[in-house]
Amino acid sequence: MKPVNIGGHAAYQNRVLAQLRKYYPDAVHSLPAPTWEIMEKFWNLDLSEIDIIMQDRYSDFGPEPRLPSDMLRSILLSVEFKVTSYTKWAADLKENHLHAILSGFTIGDTPGTGTFYDFQSRLWLSDDDNLSPKVHPPKEKPQKPKKKGEKAPPVEKYTVRELFEKFEREPPQDMKPCLRLFQIFKELFLLKSDRDGLIDLMHLSIAGDGTPVYTAAQERKKRTCGCLEKGIRECKCDRIYSQPDCNIGWDSHRGRFYFGYDLYMLTASDSENDLPVFPFLSPASRHDSFGFLYNWYSMMQFLPEANVDKLLLDSAHDAMAYYEFCRDNGITPFIDLNGKGGRPPVYKDDFTIGDDGVPICREGHTMRRDGTESIKGRTKFKCPKISFAGGSPRCTCENPCSDAKYGRTVHLVMADNPRLFNDPPRSSKEWKLEYNARTSAERCNKREKLDYKLEDGRYRSSKMWYCRLFSIMMCQHLDAWNLQKASLRNLLEQAA
């Protein structure tokens, strides 16, 4: 039958109060401060809306189900208490009365392991637990980079520009099974953070970065052919994979191959709390420049009301197609150069362009920025050797480029090369200050992997990995909220 939450969040609070007074009469003094911090957060967290959102995922007939709000609250509590196994968490709920009470369950009537897995299936809008078929040909393993710390070259057989054009015509559908998960994350957490001013969805400054997610020690697969009996070990015949959405990738930080996903996360870089906006789990071998596109076009389908003003990406995304896309969509790009894209050898006949996109005069001096004309789409640079000593300007260079009063000036037209010539220029303080915020994506990934132990969840399906990932993202937003409502501790003190 359909779940019915009579009394809403107030009913949950009443259950918690009644059971705490019964089973933990000295809770105010006996429980440690970190536990109280978690208790206060969940006491004020209203999840009753999910009971309405999930109505269509339950039958009209059958036994009364667990409330979705209680199930989700319990899963979030397991994330907060760093319990990564639902088998262990179900056992913990039977032994640790406090965890059962905070979840919203009655002591002696807590869900088993199967109930948690059944709830995850209701959150996943697909009959298949993975996005790819289990039977498919072997995927190409990336090549080991030549230099330490470098990322592996792309294994894709198409270019970034071709993928841009493909997704403009037909966006990826990989995230369709996650629609309900994202709806819950959006309605209950993302929009609240927006209302509280923690992020601004109408003027987003987005930072993107990929990070390895280890899911197993090795790739598990079975042959479907008899090539091995014939002495052919490296055949291209289909295999049966236990984790078909994962493959082998290169971890540039640890300098080794690994099996799993590449988590590409888009983060609100102007948020003090490094809040996540949208995730995408790609195969480990996928390059970040491609992972971003899968994430971006999926986010545009799920979060069309978001308006991105700035895009902060590392040098793995340094491709002309990115700059042209930003120019056509009114987005200011802050993308570091990787040195492989090249630059025009000569500009304006006798000027070269430096690594940061700033002109260098024929005497080898880096020119000084002198403003931007946005209407004309160009940035002005002037001679750095002009001195105003003595009251009048004069050029102090031994071989002046011009006999003009204020020396030689150069206008960089951004349309000539939007990759190198951007506003603000890479040499400016504005650009460097803004680009420094790109590390918010790295901090967000660090919180998910280390603080919330994302990789400790040893699952075999993308369904379970996405459910855990979205649960962690919800906790990240919850931790950033300043919930100043009725205090659970005060109410218990008054009762005592």
Number of domains: 3
Kindly provide the radius of gyration, computed on alpha-carbon positions and rounded to a whole number of angstroms. Answer: 28 Å
Structural class determined from secondary elements: alpha+beta
Low-confidence stretches: none
- Proportion of β residues? 15-25%
Percent helix, as a range, is 25-40%
What top-tier CATH class of the largest domain fits best?
Alpha Beta
Question: Looking at CATH, which topology of the largest domain would you report?
Answer: Nucleotidyltransferase, domain 5
The largest sheet is: 6 strands, mixed
First-to-last CA distance: 40 Å
What does this structure look like?
- This protein is an alpha+beta fold and 496 residues long.
- The protein folds into three domains: 8-123, no CATH class; 135-337 and 437-480, Ribonuclease H-like superfamily/Ribonuclease H (Nucleotidyltransferase, domain 5, 2-Layer Sandwich), CATH 3.30.420.10; 352-425, no CATH class.
- 35% of the residues lie in helices and 16% in strands.
- The strands form five sheets. Strands 2, 5, 6, 7, 8 and 9 form a six-stranded mixed sheet that branches. Strands 1-4-3 form a three-stranded antiparallel sheet, with no helix packed on it. Strands 12-13-16 form a three-stranded antiparallel sheet, with no helix packed on it.
- It starts with 7 loop residues before the first helix and ends with a helix.
- The model has no long low-confidence stretch (mean pLDDT 89).
